[in-house]
Write a structure and sequence with these properties.
two-stranded antiparallel sheet; Rossmann fold; alpha/beta
């Protein structure tokens, strides 16, 4: 297995909660097609049911993909958009999400980003270090950031009730939240897209006797 195949395998296993039965489309343009074909080949090599579609370059970010490409997106469970310009803020992407299609946009992606950038990160290590830093920040009253030029930025933390982190999937967010809740003997409340409570788990601070 070459390095790109290994990195793509890690992306699929660590960042996305999809089954092997999912249908995947790699959508690209002329400028990014060479890398997109390698990405598609890596997915196939890892056992994913993957198709490929190439369209003309968009002239700017936010410009809608071709109608044929927009229709094609709706035929799949998961779509990777490796393109020169971003498709994130397009009606085609929003419409795909409404129809239950997961769309991951990678505007301006290069092979170097895959092989030597954040795509190569060990996300288990990132999670571990994030949890450790979150715990430190939750207990601290002040944090000071120092630069190589001798500048210092002091930020008061006392009175703050939470620290926020960005994670790629809901699965990862739940895992991090659960770790924090266990550490602080508190509660995790999981909401659905409509804001309603989907699940609630308490780790050590249950009222006794229980309410209700």
């Amino acid at each position: 297995m070459n390095m790109l195949h290994s990195i793509v395998a890690n992306i699929m296993s660590d960042n996305l909660d999809v089954s092997k039965s999912s249908s995947i489309l790699v959508l690209t343009d002329h400028s990014t097609s060479l890398l997109a074909k390698k990405f598609k080949d890596a997915l196939i090599a890892n056992g994913w049911n993957t198709s490929f579609y190439e369209m003309e370059d968009r002239t700017k970010s936010g410009e809608e993909p071709t109608k044929e490409a927009s229709d094609k997106i709706l035929e799949y469970d998961l779509v990777f958009c490796l393109t020169k310009h971003s498709l994130t803020h397009t009606l085609a992407r929003k419409n795909a999400n409404i129809h239950g299609v997961s769309v991951i946009t990678m505007p301006g992606i290069t092979e170097d980003m895959f092989l030597h950038g954040a795509m190569k990160a060990d996300y288990h290590r990132v999670e571990k270090e994030t949890m450790e830093m979150t715990d430190k920040l939750s207990k601290a009253e002040r944090v000071t950031i120092k630069t190589g030029s001798g500048y210092r930025l002091s930020i008061p933390l006392s009175g703050r009730t939470r620290a926020t982190v960005n994670v790629p999937t809901q699965k990862e967010a739940i895992k991090i939240a659960t770790g924090i809740a266990k550490n602080q003997k508190s509660e995790v409340v999981i909401h659905n897209r409509e804001g309603k409570i989907r699940e609630k788990n308490s780790y050590g601070n249950d009222p006794f006797p229980p309410k209700g």
